[in-house]
# Entry
Amino acid sequence: MRRSRLSVTLAAFLLALSGLLAVPAEAANLLTNPGFEAGSLSGWACSNATAVSTPVHSGGYALSGTPVGADYAQCAQTVSVQPNTTYTVSAWVRGNPVYLGVTGGPSTWSGNSNAYNQLSLSFTTGNQTSAQLYLHGWYGAGTYYADDVVLDGPGGNTPGTPGAPGTPQATAVTAGSIALSWGAGGGTVTGYRVYEGGTAVATVTGTSAIVSGLAACTTHSYTVAAYNSAGESPKSGTVTASTSGCVDTGLPKHALVGYLHASFANGSGYVRMADVPAAWDIIDLAFGEPTSVTSGDIRFTRCPASECPNVESDADFVAAIKAKQAQGKKVLISIGGQNGQVQLTTTAARDKFVSSVSGIIDKYGLNGLDVDFEGHSLSLNAGDTDFRNPTTPVIVNLISALKTLKAKYGSGFVLTMAPETFFVQVGYQFYGGSGAGDARTGAYLPVIHALRDSLTVLHVQDYNSGPVMGLDNQYHNMGGAEFHIAMTDMLKAGFSVANTGQFFPGLRPDQIAIGLPAAVSAGNGYTSPADVQTAVNCLVKGSGCGSYTLRGGTSPGFRGLMTWSINWDKYYGWEFQNSHEPFLNALP
# Structure
């Protein structure tokens, strides 16, 4: 938790104090839009909040905030203050638990209430010339309301800093630039600074900017702050956008991806490479596995004749791969799988991974690599909470290895990943490095983020999964259209990473596919073709979404569908292929 509840004793003291802190008649409220009477959140920097006309304490509007996932719907405003001076703060609140406080100073809170009640506190500045007041709810506790907020005391010697601008939007992109626009900040504004992380990449006087000099096919996240002579406003919300100019890998706009049991047999039987139908655009050879968990030495051993009586020779296998590639198909080596645990704990293991995987790719003339690390391959060390700058060796070494392979084979190298929901979307509610729960939750996020500009397709396994909380703050269960809608929307819209205060930016639609079992015997979570297509129509066209509202908007460039496996699909009469290939081809 980023901010703990006050102890019972301290809370009682502050609530008792509230009766003594009546705002004097000469009160000078330093806040902009303190009663939200602008009918908006002008002057405030907020997340998951809005101005509402009911219920109000006075006037026509009040603040309504609804915590979502790891975000607790904070609204904050920074004002100019005088050093070594005492100020009083108050707000009328109702509904679910709501906190009132000053960043770096005291705070107080109120529990559930069906009527407005007043929270109050006081604080004394040090040598500072600005202070930030905040209101927020609590994780998963529901909507709160606030009205008539007061920060009383003498203003600073210079005009107050502006209110936060509106969250920017990407209005146009080229291969080297991203154009942005945003709503004006409150108060007196001299200009705006556009930030990527902590670096100002543009300074303008109006409410739009073009960030140029960017690399083609790269993803960027921006915030905006207003400034004047008193200082800078809180930053706006974040927008994520990608430049154009991505290398054409030769895939169709909407692709069918399937795993081929190339190193083993099971109840579905062996399928020769030459017998894989032309419907499959990416064929993942399952699996390359390590000689030991931590060796990094990946071996791909084709299924022996004793296990697969109809297995073809190496020469015929390679010839069939070349024939597929001549048809425009991509053939990849998939590393890991359910039994192939890979932990690159050392740089030596990292380097062996690179050399051994390169050997497999070169031997069979493959187009790239699929990362299918499952089980205990990836987990986060305690305290590793910044997915943008991971420190856990197995994560850092995997990222380095994948970047090395991408650099070696160039822009045409196809890189895909097939994590389970536990390693991706569950990071919205639990993140392993934060020290709470399973250290594997969300552990793929640093890898995906670090490789996002090199990643061809991410097809999360929407199967063999427990219930997962979506961006609507509801749990979704596998096997129906809504699960695929909610899980895929998280990848497009991005999401807050639990207990870290950070946001995982969404991916480009062309990088996103849905992973599915081909049949009931292939994995838990089989979804009928009709429900799969309902989900895709929602994601691509915005139609048939049921009660779910897309947070990431529609994705006409949605890449397609992945299945485990081609073998199982053949065993069940090619239901997956025959249902979905013409459907994907008919999409706009």
